[in-house]
Amino acid sequence: xxxxxxxxxxxxxxxxxxxxxxxxxxxxxxxxxxxxxxxxxxxxxxxxxxxxxxxxxxxxxxxxxxxxxxxxxxxxxxxxxxxxxxxxxxxxxxxxxxxxxxxxxx
Length: 106
Prior knowledge:
This protein is α+β, with helices and mostly antiparallel strands. It has helices at 24-30, 66-72; strands at 3-7, 13-17, 50-53, 82-84, 98-100. It has a single domain (3-105), classed as Ubiquitin-like (UB roll), CATH 3.10.20. Helix content is 13%, strand content 19%. It is globular, with a radius of gyration of 12 Å.
């Protein structure tokens, strides 16, 4: 299983194995990673799963789709590497992915 590292705003790192096909958000929620609330359950309707993708991984992800772009308008402190973790599907190619949670979600 691919390993995803979630880094909280305070620097705490948690690396968890996430099954292929799950979203990065599902991996966080199932492993009780703080800072990823996922209030809508992964329906791309709330932006409470906002993360910052480590710059080394950005090119390995598919681009944001229109719905994700629209939902990010509701997130705070959006940056060029902002993504909704519900929209990132885990694949073997994402083994080692690093995401950070924003300060506003803690």
